[in-house]
Amino acid sequence: MPKVRRSRKAPPEGWELIEPTLEELEQKMREAETEPHEGKRKQESLWPIFKIHHQKSRYIYDLFYRRKAISRELYQYCLDEKIADANLIAKWKKTGYENLCCLRCIQTRDTNFATNCICRVPKSKLEEGRIVECVHCGCRGCSG
């Protein structure tokens, strides 16, 4: 099984606890990248990759901030090695962005009218029974 991408720098103590989960997510990422995309829109073929990227970052975030199961050195190592997305985690720490699915959903330059993505609109503000799906990552509502 291929290893999680790392530099020559030795990982800090506690790496062996999170490595199996990260390897499993890395394997899922490879499968998602090689999955055939015939019959799908261009953006739709990227949705599984965004989802797995979110899972990896959320896993590291939860271990450090919620469960306090990993050390600061290991957390920083994961950010430095780009195992987790530092910018996405920084947004999760801010009020109102705790459930953010991806950074593209809050970038106003990616939309026609310089607004946020439709998945950022609270479900209470949407029509009853309307199913919303993000164009960028396939999220069905990350505003809470």
From TrEMBL:
GO biological-process terms attached to the record: mRNA splicing, via spliceosome
Any one of the GO CC terms: spliceosomal complex
Protein name: Protein BUD31 homolog
Organism, scientific name: Parnassius apollo
InterPro entries tied to this protein: BUD31 (IPR001748), BUD31/G10-rel_CS (IPR018230)
Source organism phylogeny: Eukaryota, Metazoa, Ecdysozoa, Arthropoda, Hexapoda
Localization in the cell: Nucleus
Alphabetized UniProt keyword annotations: Nucleus
Similarity field: Belongs to the BUD31 (G10) family.
The organism's place on the tree of life at top rank: Eukaryota
Pfam families: BUD31 (PF01125)
Main location: nucleus
